[in-house]
Design a protein that fits this description.
Layout: E1 6-12, E2 16-22, E3 28-35, E4 47-48, H1 50-68, E5 75-82, E6 87-91, E7 101-102, H2 110-118, H3 122-129, H4 138-148, H5 152-157, E8 161-165, H6 166-174, E9 181-183, H7 184-187, E10 193-194, E11 199-200, H8 202-207, E12 217-219, E13 222-227, H9 230-233, E14 238-244, H10 245-252, E15 261-265, E16 269-276, E17 287-290, E18 300-306, H11 311-319, H12 328-334, E19 343-345, E20 363-365, H13 373-399, E21 405-409, H14 416-426, E22 429-433, H15 438-450, E23 465-469, H16 475-492
Helix pairs in contact: 10-15, 12-13, 13-14
The structure holds adenosine-5'-diphosphate.
């Protein structure tokens, strides 16, 4: 009976909420997506309204069910994949958030993290959490809310507030306040979780002054966390997965073996390499993070995150109004043979891996009187590939070997120009799968496996390649471009 039903994946991303419904054969039977508002209260600050997140997520759920012509009774389980690190603090009784969600991109705690760094905490934090000292991760954001919202610190000390990443908040709301949980992958991004012992770390909670009783219980990603409330989703559906979007995508690619690698081209770019049972410590300022799975036994990945990936195209569209749609960027980029020496470093919120420079800011170099809109658009697209290249090179140095094949996904990977340029500049094969909704697919796989909808990984349908991009650029040209890119990076540094 259960096998006639469907698996629903909620993909709560940085710029939009999505719902995708999969059948037994891992086919998408319907999907719905809604963008929501980005709030920029000050330069470098980024927030979301929790109600927007929740409302859009419920709307797309209802919409996807309607399109598929199915009812909540037809759903076997629901899995959540979510933007990571973003934090929400809310009142346990009223459910009311005490402040907007502080988004992973937000830099408001950069100075504080710099201070901790100068006080010598980096090694302790890196060895426990696998993370480098940066405002990107959750801990300093939760601390900021407790320190800056009137009454929040006192309420937290009285045990009245809860804190969590977006998965935790969604599960709390969808279950009618019954589930207060997260998974290993989300926990591993908070800077409060020891990725070796798989526990919240007392010393770190103390350092960031966050009462540990505010934090949720932590489970494997594929796990029955509880059930949705009938009044919210129309039926008491098991919520059987919570997973950070990037680890969800890694699982969706079935990159479950040591050495498997993927890069996601979404708002940011996120390159993850599965390192199996080994928590590899990077010498190249990459981070160590937990992979998604169904057991208590951890597996690890090395990760490099680029803060502004596809978002640079969104900026051309919404900020500069150079584009009407993100898709148009490809057409413009192809109108010119190259950027004529223009480089754009989109360090809008600092630079992520491998630079970790919170003070860096965006820059366009090489402008001449002949520079056209097309050159700038092309330089923006190329910047996504160059930044991913820097992370790939760091990874290769850690591994001591060349990476020859890269699985890709994310909103911007539909751009053939970008994918070809990535293959060219990194001199590797870029493999784009049929189902680009890999994050949702990963959450669906995990939820379906957790409830026995699929008996084993062998039963999952592999997401085969739709297109492979091969490197065509000559060595000399590649070297010149990369050298010039690094000159531009130097000029963007803080
Ligand atoms: P997220 O899950 O982080 O919200 P998505 O994976 O949906 O993001 O990707 C959206 C991003 O991809 C946006 O920043 C958008 O500008 C970019 N994008 C979408 N389509 C294209 C395209 N054809 N070319 C380049 N960038 C694109």
């Amino acid at each position: 009976m259960m096998k006639d039903k469907y698996i629903v994946a909620l993909d709560q991303g940085t710029t939009s909420s999505r719902c995708i419904i999969f059948d037994r054969y891992c086919n998408i039977i319907s999907k719905s997506q809604k963008e929501f508002k980005q709030i920029y209260p000050k330069p470098g600050w980024v927030e979301h309204n929790q109600q927007d997140i929740l409302n859009t997520q419920i709307e797309v759920y209802k919409d996807a069910l309607k399109t598929a012509g199915i009812s909540p009774k037809d759903i076997a389980a629901l899995g959540i994949a979510n933007q990571r690190e973003t934090v929400i603090v809310w009142d346990k009784i009223s459910g009311r958030p005490v402040y907007n969600a502080i988004v992973w991109q937000c830099r408001r705690t950069a100075d504080y993290m710099q201070k901790l760094k100068s006080q010598g905490f980096s090694d302790m934090i890196f060895s426990k959490t696998g993370l480098v000292m940066d405002a990107y991760f959750s801990a300093s954001k939760i601390k900021w809310i407790l320190d800056n919202v009137s009454g929040a610190r006192a309420a937290a000390n009285r045990g009245e507030l809860l804190a969590g990443t977006v998965d935790t908040y969604l599960m709390w709301c969808l279950s009618g306040n019954q589930i207060f949980a997260t998974d290993y992958t989300n926990a591993s991004r908070t800077m409060l979780f020891n990725i070796h012992t798989l526990e919240w770390d007392k010393e770190l909670c103390k350092l960031f002054d966050i009462p540990q009783n505010m934090l949720p219980q932590v489970f494997p990603s594929g796990h029955i966390m509880g059930c949705a409330d009938k009044s919210v989703l129309g039926e008491s559906i098991p919520i059987a997965c919570a997973v950070g979007d990037q680890q969800g995508s890694l699982f969706g690619h079935l990159c479950i073996n040591e050495g498997d690698i993927k890069n996601t081209y979404g708002t940011g770019c996120f390159l993850l390499l599965n390192t199996g049972k080994h928590a590899v410590k990077s010498n190249q300022r990459l981070i160590t993070t937990l992979c998604a799975g169904l057991s208590q036994e951890p597996s690890y990945a090395l990760e490099g995150s680029v803060f502004v990936g596809g978002a640079v195209i969104q900026w051309l569209r919404d900020g500069l109004k150079l584009l009407r749609t993100s898709c148009e960027s490809e057409k413009y980029a192809r109108k010119v043979n190259d950027t004529e020496g223009v480089f754009l470093v989109p360090a809008f919120t600092g630079l992520g891996a491998p630079y970790w420079d919170g003070q860096a800011r965006g820059i366009i170099t090489g402008l001449t009187r002949g520079t056209k809109k097309e050159h700038i658009i092309r330089a923006a697209l190329e910047s996504i590939a160059y930044q991913s290249l820097d992370v790939l090179n760091a990874l290769e140095k850690d591994l001591g070997s060349k990476i020859n094949r890269l699985n890709v996904d994310g909103g911007a990977c539909v751009n053939d120009f970008l994918m070809q340029f990535q293959a060219d500049i990194a001199d590797l094969e870029v493999v784009r799968p049929n189902v680009l909704e890999t994050t949702a697919l990963g959450a669906a796989y995990l939820a379906g496996l957790a409830i026995g909808y699929w008996d084993s990984i062998d039963e999952l349908k592999r997401n085969n390649e739709e297109k492979i991009f091969y490197s065509e650029m000559d060595v000399k040209r590649r070297k010149t471009l990369i050298d010039n890119w690094h000159k531009a990076i130097q000029r963007a540094r803080g």
